[in-house]
Fold these 3 entries.
Entry 1:
Amino acid sequence: MFVFRAFRSAVRAASGLVFPSLCLGCGGPLADAAPICASCVRMLPRPAPEALAGQLLARDCAEPLARRSVALWRFDPGGTVQRVQHALKYGRRPSLGIPLGRLLGDATQRHARGWAPDVVCPVPLAPIRELERGYNQSAGLASGAADALACETEDLLVRTRSTRTQTTLAFSERWQNVAGAFARSPEARPLAGVRVLLVDDVVTTGATLLAAAQPLLDAGAEVTVAALAMADG
């Protein structure tokens, strides 16, 4: 098994030399592990600084949580942001999460007005979905964000039940789908007064992020949410 893994790693490394990774925006060669070049990053659509806060407040979100929330990009169906998100989530490329998470961590640092997390927590997938996909795309984002913010990442949450994919559901159905679907992990540290950055890949209505934040808030944590992209809810 070790020999096979070493051979597979060598093949992948050699393939990278012969077929360098290409930017998902302009198609040019990439110099690092990020899926998009620096020029394309600067051109990606960004939401207004208070856009996500306004959307969450409209869902009766607590004001402190909403005010510090951040989305790095605006989701652009058929565009570069969607290609990046789909490569991370469905393209079996979990390594993309680290460089993307660093960008998200930098955005959080700029936007949160002096607030800094003690720990970064990914929104967990249902076990069967993570088994099917092979990884949780939000875990890589959380690791990258924690790296940028000089803190640690920890799985503070568990899924209490499986849920339907949110992409096919109407607004009201999304909230019913995820209500009570998350709980604090039995192995989590005491959270009273702990500042937690909760990370997911895309936020639409905010239902998933807010449902996941609730057990952390109930445990006394100070929570801020961050997403790679914000879709129109």
Note: Strands lie at 70-74, 119-122, 152-153, 157-159, 182-184, 195-203, 222-230.
Entry 2:
Amino acid sequence: MNVLRQVAAVCGLSVLLGAAAHAEDWQLAKDEDGIKVYLSSVSGSKYKAYRGVVEIKADVQTLNALQEDVPGSCRWIHACAEMKLLKRQGNEAWTYSKIDMPWPVTGRDLVLHVKGEQTADGTIVRQLQAEPTFIPAVKDEIRVPKLVGEWRMVPKGQGVTEVTYQVRTEPGGSIPSWLANSFVVDAPFNTLDALRKRAEKR
């Protein structure tokens, strides 16, 4: 479908299907302003998976339009410095994004392969997977080697949509523990908060 041919990528660094097989024991890490963030340890990884859930007073089509504006989505995705669409093919898309990191941590970049689908009840699902070799390496950036994630937008009636944003990632290189621990909470919370503000203004 045309509405699924473009996509918003994850933040800077966001699998109900992919991570669910590897993440267990989701624990509520933040519950504020209607947004809930859950974290889960991932077997064999020092980085936790994250899941953010919020209800937004906007319909699925409004949220989908915001996500289809790939360059524009960088304004509401946490830590996004740049985002662009590389390729579209049917309901699949490939996006490139640069992720801001605080000094002295080296910036990351990310190539995502996104597959979209719309279910019979109007739910839109976008499955995300890193494809680090899709384009050549970029100077002064560390390419994120692994990421699986999912956006799920479920209509709840009366113009309300439940949005879930979930990610499991290996960011590559060295990340200080304080940054890793804050990112997994800030990324889903700030992304969903900014998306909600933009959607509810429309």
Note: The beta strands are 27-32, 35-40, 49-56, 80-89, 92-99, 108-118, 124-130, 142-143, 146-157, 160-170.
Entry 3:
Amino acid sequence: MERKQEAGVILRAMEPEDLDMLYHIENDRSLWNIASTNVPYSRYALHNYIADAKNDIYMDGQIRMMIENLAHEVVGVIDLVDFDPKHQRAELGIIIMKRFRRRGYAQAAISSLIEYARKVLHLRQIYAVVSVSNEVSQRCLASLGFIGDSVLKEWIYCDGHYQDARVMQFFV
């Protein structure tokens, strides 16, 4: 996959060298409340995931890219999952590593992904499901043109209780 660059970030395909970063992200229990992950992943499973990924949303049903800043530091991961080819939509997921947050990387990465979705993947819609308590993510998405007033009641189970989630959509 070619590299994509915009506003201080580069989106690139996963490489074997990203194994440690993915291992850290996938096994960080503090992130499990924002994703559907609820079990740890082994290095072996993640190694195979990287090796087997075709980086083709039609073959894999998803696409995951590493987010680098212009100094070529990996600052996070962004993906499109649950790809629906009939309706041309996919769900956005993004994680920015804690030490790189609040620097504009998420906004830049999502903006770059939107352009990729528009020009290369020809998606019609990108959506995100965000906890109603995650105001930072909601503001970030809204600043990029995501809209959403639909609330999924008790959608996310975290720390022994359910939280409502907001569906935010972007029409590419």
Note: The first strand starts at residue 4 and ends at 6.
